[in-house]
């Protein structure tokens, strides 16, 4: 991987991983002027929220966080493979100056040995692909990602308790055997390869490829 690619991927992911939920904001009544932030405060708060969430040690490849705003309320959304991430995310942002309240809608994914096996298998299928290794700081499989001595049992079950370390551009969300890929990649080919690798993983019931390609608009998602 070239130096330029190493620089582009983290910067690109940082700008897209935490996005303002446009459908959510658009459907809310316009609050009074004194109930909203100024443009300057909005930019500051968005940047601080991005930084706070990105620095969470409990946020990993099997989680996905987004946020939106309604008036002076920050709305947290996404998926957490462990309950601690939901509370950690809220605690990280609630003291940011200007935020009046937090609406924490992060969904905690069910505890499931089957889903953990799928997480490990999809991770290996995606991140061992030569064209996709550049999106993984560990440049390899689950065993390499969680450190020396990682056994097959750890990789096959309970992986949410010891998730892969380091930066990952492609996030893998698994719920009741259904897989969704979130994140950002450099081109459509990489997105297609990641989707095919997830689809070829035994045990998956369905695969939703919501990866964003650099330079393209985010895929529209219906508000919950």
Automatic annotation (TrEMBL):
Keywords recorded for this protein, A-Z: Signal
Family matches, as InterPro entries: BON_dom
Source superkingdom: Bacteria
One Pfam short name: BON
Protein's name in the database: Osmotically-inducible protein OsmY
Domain called BON: residue spans: 72-110, 167-214
Extent of the signal sequence: 1-26
């Amino acid at each position: 991987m070239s130096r330029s690619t190493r620089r582009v991927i983290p910067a690109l992911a940082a700008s897209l991983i935490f996005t303002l939920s446009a459908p959510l904001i658009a459907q809310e009544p316009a609050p009074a002027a004194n109930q909203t932030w100024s443009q300057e405060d909005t930019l500051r708060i968005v940047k601080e929220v991005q930084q706070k969430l990105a620095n969470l040690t409990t946020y990993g490849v099997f989680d996905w966080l987004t946020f939106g705003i309604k008036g002076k309320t920050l709305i947290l959304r996404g998926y957490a493979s462990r309950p601690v991430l939901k509370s950690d995310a809220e605690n990280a942002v609630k003291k940011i100056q200007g935020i009046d309240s937090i609406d924490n809608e992060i969904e905690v994914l069910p505890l499931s040995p089957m889903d953990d096996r799928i997480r490990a298998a999809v991770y290996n299928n995606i991140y061992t692909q030569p064209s996709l290794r550049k999106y993984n700081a560990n440049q390899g499989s689950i065993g390499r990602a969680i450190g020396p001595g990682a056994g097959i049992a750890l990789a096959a079950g309970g992986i949410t308790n010891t998730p892969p370390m380091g930066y990952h551009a492609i996030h893998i969300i698994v719920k009741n055997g259904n897989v969704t890929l979130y994140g950002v990649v450099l081109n459509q080919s990489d997105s297609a390869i990641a989707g095919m690798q997830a689809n070829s993983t035994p045990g998956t019931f369905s695969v939703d490829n919501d990866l964003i390609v650099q330079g393209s608009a985010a895929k529209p998602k219906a508000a919950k």
